[in-house]
Write a structure and sequence with these properties.
single chain, alpha/beta, Rossmann fold, two-stranded parallel sheet, 12 helices, about 35% helix, binds NADP nicotinamide-adenine-dinucleotide phosphate
């Protein structure tokens, strides 16, 4: 099987109406891709640009989109993370409204953090989730379960670190903010945002009964962050910052950063690539960072920075 032809919108989406709750890094990219392919999309933000026609949705301040704006939604992608209390903002604020919509597909972006620490071992979609889990991952798992209990036609996508243009180690190197940290045996998984969009559209091109309820979206090559930084420096032809040992600098890391370094796992993409036949656009950080560079070096101001 070949990967999705991203030049074509899945027929189901071409005839439907997509709503993206959370037009952040990934949500905006899906929306832009679907629009480019001729599809109809609405997107929510907490504080939309006045010039945009994005919907306002902020569960914290109780700002909800008017029901008429959601009417007719057939496909929904949720990118909004759990709130600070660990609840799902969408289900809490809009759960009853969603039940009234003619939804044929709901995609929920989750995290591979729910697999917990595997000391570098492999996990698949059939692996048990933690415990023990970090607090944020326990909240994420609870949100997954709440979505599963909703009875909506749900697909959960578990994501590792998301990167792409505007979010990658090329930028941190150029800004002088990169840290080269070494922790023996530690790897991280990642996925380029183009592959998130490609995989979502690939799933929507499949018959509904062939869409797995749970799917890891991750590239082919778990790797140490120092390896990525080395490759980024190679692409930029710039020096690397000095190498720091994790144990020495751990006390300086934020609790959030520390929590990422405390878990080590390799997440399998076998179901996505072999089971569903999705061909990754960027199988590893090497192709992905090269693509980021070719986008970013076209941006105004590239030559002035770094
Ligand atoms: N970033 C990663 O490396 C990573 C890794 C694994 C999983 N994930 C998860 O994957 C999903 C997508 O990631 P991303 O990086 O694309 O996220 P992102 O850029 O942070 O976007 C999140 C979106 O959620 C909206 N949002 C946040 N809190 C909200 C609330 N209380 N009410 C209404 N809207 C709210 C934000 O609104 P505004 O647009 O107004 O800011 C934004 O549009 C997230 O759930 C994230 O936690 C991310």
């Amino acid at each position: 099987m070949t990967g999705l032809d991203v030049k074509a919108l899945p027929a189901e989406l071409a005839q439907g109406q997509l709503l993206v709750l959370g037009g952040g890094y990934t949500g905006q990219h899906l929306a832009a891709s679907v629009r480019r392919l001729g599809g109809s999309v609405r997107v929510s933000r907490r504080q939309p640009e006045p010039s945009s026609d994005d919907l306002t949705f902020d569960s914290r301040s109780g700002l909800l989109p008017p029901p008429a704006a959601l009417a007719g939604t057939t496909h929904l992608l949720v990118t909004i993370p759990p709130d600070p209390e660990g609840h799902d903002p969408v289900l809490q604020s809009l759960g009853e409204q969603l039940q009234q919509l003619p939804l044929r597909w709901v995609g929920y972006l989750s995290s591979t953090g729910v697999y917990g620490d595997r000391q570098g071992g492999w996990v698949t979609e059939t692996s048990a989730v933690g415990p023990p889990l970090q607090r944020r991952s326990a909240a994420r798992l609870a949100c997954e379960q709440a979505w599963q209990a909703s009875g909506l036609p749900l697909q959960i996508f578990r994501l590792p670190g998301i990167y792409g243009p505007g979010r990658n180690p090329l930028l941190s190197l150029r800004r002088g903010e990169a840290r080269l940290i070494h922790k023996a045996g530690q790897v991280f998984g990642r996925i380029h945002r183009d592959d998130i969009v490609g995989a979502l559209l690939h799933c929507l091109a499949l018959p509904p009964n062939q869409r797995p309820p749970l799917l890891n979206l991750v590239d082919q090559q778990p790797a140490p962050s120092s390896e990525l930084l080395g490759f980024a420096a190679h692409l930029l032809q710039c020096p690397l910052p000095p190498c720091q040992n994790f144990e020495a600098i751990a006390p300086q890391l934020s609790p959030m950063a520390l929590s990422f370094w405390q878990e080590n796992r390799r997440v399998s993409n076998q179901l996505l690539t072999e089971g569903l036949g999705y061909r990754l656009l960027y199988p590893s950080y090497r192709e992905g960072l090269r693509a980021c560079l070719s986008v970013e070096e076209q941006l105004p101001g590239w030559g002035n920075q770094g």
